[in-house]
Design a protein that fits this description.
The complex is a heterodimer of chains A (394) and B (337). Chain A is mainly alpha-helical. Among the domains of chain A are: 41 residues; 205 residues, MetI-like fold, CATH 1.10.3720. Chain A is 67% helix and 5% strand. A three-stranded antiparallel beta sheet of chain A has the order 1-2-7. The longest helix of chain A has 34 residues. The radius of gyration of chain A is 28 Å and the shape is globular. The longest helix of chain B has 20 residues. Chain B is globular. The chains are: A mainly alpha (394), B alpha/beta (337). The interface between A and B is large, with 56 and 61 residues.
Chain lengths: 394, 337
């Protein structure tokens, strides 16, 4: 008895035998070691740089960049700072990544569904596409699309015009766009207001359906509101029809909106490559839902669209979203291959900055920080979305 | 990927233990080869021929260094570097010396921590343009699309020039020279801008060289020279005086063909230069026959120029600024005394 009592009293186990405390200890030790390693690397680098009289620090960001960038979403000239040049690069990367991701998801979904089609031809064509695109390195695809562009299209002075206001040449595709008009701002506001109304309407429609069982044609009414509101605003402003048409001046087209060959080639390459992977992800997701689910849904009298929306998709998305996130990150990171075909993305601008200032460590640190930021934001958003679509266990 | 290579170099910079600053010569001797960064492909300056043998003016400079150190031109390891990679490669000690048509600039000699030796080619930036565009002067380039390589002084020079003359333009910056040339020949750009020597090289590989012309404007000074790191004066001296020796030999009339005869020369200057009268080799920490070996195995500057870029090569470059000072050029070796 005594022995038993003793052991009960000495409940104070030494901390190295307590799994919880031990875990904390190990984590602390790892943290300190990583910290020391980082400290060693950084201080050692600084000492080495000092020894070789290489400049350090980020003050170069405020200096004049004195180089031009081919395309930019914000006003920029060689008289601006390096910081602004890098911002131009970041925006160019965001532009291609954002548009790329949207198109990739659409195209990937279509091909993924086509792959499962009962139509032999459609299914095999989709399979062929997936196999072909997955197997060719994306860099080669970029070179291919870029070469197609400048090798097949004529110089600007002999540009092809497939429709009024559109000019295709080896300098890119130039479009006519509506001339700047105050109505555009109000049209945009009308669209935003429409979005708000659609959101409220959907909530109302769902509540009403839950109460009364009546179904409201949400989709059609939403489209009507989203298109109708801006259109009515445009009409109220007297329907301005003025167009900014690109005109050949000197070497190139002026005016309108021009998509450069580099941008189009990069977008095409990234989208066509990544869409093949997304298609496989979508196919896997849909196939993960057992056939019985569909049959059960149909047997209670649901029509095909509600079957997809209410039964199949909620279960499939759970499987689709995580790998889809990684494909989106891949696309964003692959966009740094732009440097090979001359699209002024972030890495391209950062490279020039590094070379002109000679501060490669700071430059590479900025590159890493920016891509880390892109990746973390994308995955934070996708994790949020994933939580929303994940099966809620009740 | 190239970006990845840049990363690894930065990592090497980060991880390199406390670097011993002196002793590049000892390291080179222990290794048995001198590691030289070169351009992956500019005809006449550094480019592997069809058998994979490196050829060119910069390559010959690298060989001269090997001849000075080892008495053997083959003891060179060539590392092909893009414009963006080259300086980090030197800073992180991946290479011993960079012979890669690199312009001497204030920034590179100070904040980048590098030292340039004597110039081995005086260049200047120009514009290459298809004749069919009928442009006679760079001032007519308003609105033009301009192809250029990244990571060079070229981008800044072009921006400065167009800014000064208030001419709007659009750059297309492609990292790989071969891709850039292809895009230019296909008409993606109206003009291509680079150092005049490179324009000659690019023109020489055009589908039809006669369709292209170089505009008269030279918009910058580009003194190209081999580079070493700060902090090793002995290695700097060796590389510097290797380039000097090439020029001095031409001035003294010593060529690879007559160098053995010249050993018997009674000219005290030549006797000292070739190590018949010892002294200079010891001063540099090299064999007394260092200059003899350079000239015997590589030739003097004039021979190197004629062989790689001169009028009889596809580049058809005149000596111009790169002639000896005695003939009106800028090539001027400091005295061997």
């Amino acid at each position: 008895m005594r022995g038993f009592k003793n052991s009960a009293v000495s409940k104070k186990t030494p901390f190295w035998l307590d799994p919880k405390k031990r875990a904390i200890l190990f984590q602390l030790m790892t943290f300190v070691m990583v910290g020391l390693l980082a400290y060693y690397l950084i201080s050692n680098t600084l000492i080495n740089l000092e020894k070789q009289k290489i400049a350090t620090g980020f003050s170069f960001l405020h200096k004049e960049s004195s180089f031009e960038i081919g395309e930019s979403l914000i006003p920029y000239s060689a008289a601006n700072t390096y910081a602004r040049a890098l911002l131009v690069g970041i925006l160019n990367t965001v532009k291609v990544a954002f548009i790329g991701i949207v198109i990739t998801i659409l195209l990937g979904t279509i091909i993924g569904v086509a792959r499962l089609s009962t139509n032999w031809l459609i299914s095999k064509l989709a399979a062929l596409y997936i196999e072909l695109m997955q197997d060719i390195p994306v860099l080669l695809q970029l070179f291919f699309w870029y070469a197609i562009f400048y090798e097949t299209l004529p110089p600007p002075r002999e540009a092809i015009s497939p429709a009024a206001g559109i000019f295709m040449s080896n300098r890119g595709v130039a479009f006519a766009v509506p001339e700047g008009h105050p109505a555009h701002l109000y049209m945009f506001l009308a669209f935003v207001a429409g979005c708000g109304i659609v959101y409220l309407m959907r909530r109302w429609a769902r509540k009403r359906q839950e109460k009364t069982g009546q179904i409201f044609p949400v989709f059609r009414v939403s489209i009507g509101i989203l298109v109708g509101f801006p259109f009515l605003t445009w009409w109220a402003f007297g329907a301005p029809m003025g167009m900014d048409v690109p005109v050949l001046e000197g070497f190139n087209f002026e005016g309108g909106l021009t998509l450069s060959p580099e941008f189009i080639a990069l977008l095409l390459g990234l989208v066509l490559y990544t869409a093949a992977f997304v298609a496989e992800v979508v196919r896997a997701g849909i196939q993960s839902v057992s056939k019985g689910q569909r049959e059960a849904a149909m047997s209670i009298g649901l029509r095909p669209v509600p079957v997809l929306n209410l039964v199949i998709l909620p279960q499939a998305l759970r499987v689709i979203v995580p790998p889809l996130t990684s494909q989106m990150l891949n696309l964003t990171k692959n966009s740094s291959l732009a440097v090979a075909i001359g699209y002024p993305d972030f890495v391209s601008v950062a490279n020039t900055t590094i070379n002109q200032t000679g501060q490669s460590i700071e430059g590479v640190a900025i590159i890493m920080a920016v891509y880390l930021f892109f990746s973390l934001t994308t995955s934070a958003f996708m994790n949020w979305y994933n939580k929303r679509v994940a099966l809620v266990e009740r | 990927m190239k970006v990845f290579k840049c990363f690894t170099m930065v990592l090497m910079l980060l991880a390199a233990g406390s670097m011993s600053v002196a002793g590049t010569l000892d390291e080179v001797r222990a290794r048995g080869v001198v590691v030289v960064g070169v351009n992956p492909g500019v005809a006449g300056f550094s480019m592997p021929d069809e058998k994979g043998v490196w050829k060119g003016l910069d390559v010959d400079t690298a060989k001269a260094i090997a001849a000075a150190v080892f008495g053997d031109v083959n003891k060179v390891k060539y590392v092909a570097l893009t414009a963006v990679q080259r300086l980090p490669a030197l800073q992180s000690k991946e290479i011993d010396v960079l012979c890669r048509n690199t312009t001497i600039t204030l920034t590179r000699e100070t904040v980048s921590g590098l030292n340039f030796v004597h110039v081995n080619y005086y260049d200047g930036q120009g514009f290459l343009i298809p004749k069919k565009l009928k442009v006679k002067s760079a001032k007519q380039l308003k609105g033009a699309t301009v192809c250029t390589l990244p990571g060079t002084t070229t981008e800044m020079n072009a921006a400065d020039y167009f800014r000064k003359n208030k001419i709007g333009w659009k750059p297309v910056v492609i990292e790989n020279p071969a891709e850039l040339n292809k895009a230019f020949f296909a008409g993606r750009c109206d003009v291509l801008t680079s150092d005049a020597s490179q324009l000659a090289a690019i023109r020489s590989i055009a589908p039809n060289p006669d369709d292209y012309t170089v505009l008269p404007e030279i918009i910058s000074k580009e003194p190209l020279a081999p580079v070493v790191r700060h902090g090793d004066d002995q290695w700097y001296d060796i590389v510097n005086w290797t380039v000097m020796a090439l020029i001095e030999a031409e001035e003294l009339g010593i060529t690879s063909a007559n160098v053995d005869e010249m050993l018997k020369s009674t000219d005290p200057q030549i006797q000292r230069f070739l190590g018949v009268t010892p002294g200079y080799g010891k001063a540099l920490g090299l064999d007394e026959k260092w200059a003899y070996n350079i000239i015997k195995q590589v030739g003097n500057y004039g021979e190197i120029f004629e062989r790689n870029v001169g009028p009889k090569t596809p580049l058809k470059l005149e000596r111009g600024l790169n002639d000896l000072w005695t003939r009106g050029g800028l090539m001027y070796s400091f005295p061997f005394r």
